């Protein structure tokens, strides 16, 4: 996903996901209709973990083909999800089932004799650290930390904000929260104070857990000043801030009334057991943007702060009893474009996830993937990509360079798992047509409709929607705002979940995602408008060979502004970095005489985006002054290069 998409979607509000957040979701029976009265949730009998894998594989890989599984999930969701729920250990069964995510992800593996198996491989080129952490060690850390949280007043139902880099302690905190039924909200380290304060005010955490420093190539991220500033800006204050001081770096703290030190707290902590919570108990809030055989190592090269980080780095692999790689580094520069190959080769990764942007970054620096050639990838079977459209050139390059099928699939923060994919375990082809994000995953009845809610013909662009009910694991609400949740996603097309993505299906049911169909507000626009010299501004996506899109601000300056363009641009870039954070990826500004507006004052975003990307654009009859487009075109010709030039 382009970072711009993440930022802009943040303003939609907080997303809430239920306990069933793992990749392949197998939880409680499905709700039949979210709005018109929920059917009571019914749970299937508990089956001990020792038989779970056999059951699961028999049920899903041998018994069903993809077509059978999809059909059953669509036509008889209760039967389908009852069977799937056998993969979970339930504390209480039947109606009102109870379970605990941390127990399912950690404790049951230890109880079943797999305590010495690697749970997490922490690989951090930025600090020169490599560490293997077993399931027993994860259990010890999560249970002691749960004791610390409880000692400081965190109860089931409270919320804990986690603002940490990619260190194992971030995962321990997620699991410790799940252990005691506290909801966690992990905030990506690339966001700055203002964005952090907005989330603190919204989520109202009882406790905030952070770290002393993050390590980015070439600079340190100082979390403490960022937290201090955020707390100054927010009206809600957490009771305490727990600080993990990273080894071999200076020790930091906050005001003594607020500050708790991780090491000191853990030294005296009493382990806490897993509490039993209802299956629909909220596990996390996230803003928008084998039994005896060798366990498979899985690596999701993302960040815990994204939805794929939650499901693919932490909960999904641990639920399956796999080993997950936690990588604190980049695809390039840590130290070179061979980094992904090195990690996969060294840890024997069987499957990997990453975003197309990361592949483009490697390709740009090392077009022949020379750095990777020294690392044999004998155990790698599949590479999965998602988060943004994967262009065919990048897909083909990745296939050649990694030597395995590259499978695009489609996610949303709201879904908590993939909506379309190539379900390899259900026998789907590992060579789907280029450009597709796969077929609908069983449980997601995806269809493409026009604005009048008529299903469109194959290969006709339309609104991608999902027929209700949604499967377990999908978001249940916007955080404490059920009304807005209903309004945003379920009102425009009654009976469907509106994904707000546009695309088409082909004759065989493969889905192609083309673009987001919603027009969302862009937070960078707000930050630029704060500048005293700017009277009007809009930010659009400029196509970029590496990142897909980068933000471009079109600004109208005050008539009396005397400052140089360079100074103004530097000030605006600083303002966005201070408010949103470096992840805003904001660096480009052009100054124009005016912005096009409709008579009702709206900016025609899609025309403007086409214009800046040198594509044909439409001037609708409602535009007040069509000449404005010509002026912008002239400015862009002088300042912004056409792609490829
Ligand atoms: N803490 C602080 N700053 C961070 C950060 C973090 N955790 N992560 C990124 N940043 C900073 C970077 O240092 C950079 O700052 P700079 O402008 O001073 O150089 C800025 O944010 C922009 O970062 P980004 O555009 O992400 O570039 P990158 O080189 O840090 O990372 C990728 C490149 C490809 C690794 C990264 O973009 C990525 O992992 N993308 C895929 C995300 C994903 O999994 N998406 C699917 C989500 S559903
Ligand atoms: P987020 O909720 O921030 O993770 O962003 C989800 C959005 O990213 C989706 O609505 C799509 O617009 C986009 N997206 C995710 N995966 C893909 C994909 N495989 N192809 C195209 N777009 C994608």
From TrEMBL:
GO cellular component: mitochondrial matrix
Species in which this protein is naturally found: Sinocyclocheilus grahami (Dianchi golden-line fish)
Reactions this protein catalyses: butanoate + ATP + CoA = butanoyl-CoA + AMP + diphosphate
Family: Belongs to the ATP-dependent AMP-binding enzyme family.
GO molecular function: acetate-CoA ligase activity; propionate-CoA ligase activity
Domain AMP-binding enzyme C-terminal: 529-602
Gene Ontology BP, a term: lipid metabolic process
Bilayer-spanning residue ranges: none
Residue stretches making up the AMP-dependent synthetase/ligase domain: 112-296, 297-467
Record keywords: Lipid metabolism
Protein name from the UniProt record: Acyl-CoA synthetase short-chain family member 3, mitochondrial
EC number from the UniProt entry: 6.2.1.1
Pfam families given in the database record: AMP-binding, AMP-binding_C
